[in-house]
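hey
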């Protein structure tokens, strides 16, 4: 039997006894039966005990656990005040420095698991993808993309920073292989969020479709970049970039970049 009610504070023995009572099977007197009575899952009847209906008894336990979680969340604010006071006396800080490799790895996992709504990530180095239980968007450097990444994934040739954004509440910025900074809400956090969104607009899907690639090529073509610069943006050789651009110009029926821009506008590229 699995401990599917363990989250409500029931031991395996208590779960087994409660299921037995539900099936109208006898449960011997002892600590387990006493615990069921104390938790409102069983009630004395005619010298024996009967199970209290699950939709009543378990709902009470769920509501009690939710109350405890709310109280714990409310307590976080006061704990953070005390934490910041001792970390950076005499004033609170918006930035926490983490300078140990093991501590950095731990904090990367912790900040992502603390997300309530969304995790946004810029990943520059290969790593095992961490499963998160909220919406997740990740931009990888092409060389860092790993098999079976979770969430929505896009790629770019290079990234300026490795970054983990958690909701609108914090960011973890990698400063090196074994150093990181954790940033609380401030103007700098807003800037990192804006950076992510701008990169997300430019990045290609991990498996780009033809339309997405055409839009990126058109954007680069009209940006005034040289063929060499476009190649670097695409993460390909100059020869490959020239071949892709020539194919796009031919598809648009254009001989100049100006004509390509006009045709791209007409086609909503």
């Amino acid at each position: 039997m699995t401990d599917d009610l363990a989250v409500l504070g029931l031991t395996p023995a208590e779960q087994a006894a409660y299921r037995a009572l539900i099936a109208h099977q006898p449960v011997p007197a002892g600590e387990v039966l006493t615990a069921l009575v104390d938790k409102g899952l069983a009630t004395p009847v005619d010298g024996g005990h009967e199970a209290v209906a699950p939709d009543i008894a378990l709902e009470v336990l769920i509501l009690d656990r939710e109350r405890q979680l709310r109280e714990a969340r409310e307590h976080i604010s006061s704990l953070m005040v005390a934490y910041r006071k001792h970390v950076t006396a005499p004033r609170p800080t918006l930035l926490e420095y983490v300078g140990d490799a093991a501590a950095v790895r731990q904090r990367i996992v912790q900040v992502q698991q603390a997300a309530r709504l969304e995790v946004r990530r810029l990943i520059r180095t290969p790593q095992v993808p961490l499963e998160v239980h909220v919406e997740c968007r990740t931009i990888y450097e092409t060389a860092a993309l790993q098999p079976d990444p979770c969430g929505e994934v896009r790629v770019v040739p290079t990234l300026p920073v490795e970054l983990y954004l958690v909701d609108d509440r914090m960011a973890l910025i990698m400063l090196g292989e074994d150093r990181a900074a954790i940033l609380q809400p401030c103007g700098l956090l807003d800037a990192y969020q804006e950076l992510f969104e701008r990169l997300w607009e430019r990045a290609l899907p991990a498996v780009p479709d033809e339309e997405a690639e055409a839009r990126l090529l058109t954007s680069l073509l009209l940006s005034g970049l040289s063929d060499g610069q476009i190649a670097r943006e695409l993460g390909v050789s100059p020869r490959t970039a020239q071949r892709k651009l020539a194919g796009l110009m031919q598809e648009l029926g254009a001989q100049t970049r100006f004509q390509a821009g006009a045709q791209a506008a007409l086609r909503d590229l």
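Strands lie at 42-45, 48-51, 95-98, 118-123, 135-141, 152-156, 163-166, 170-176, 179-183, 204-205. The chain has nine helices and ten strands.
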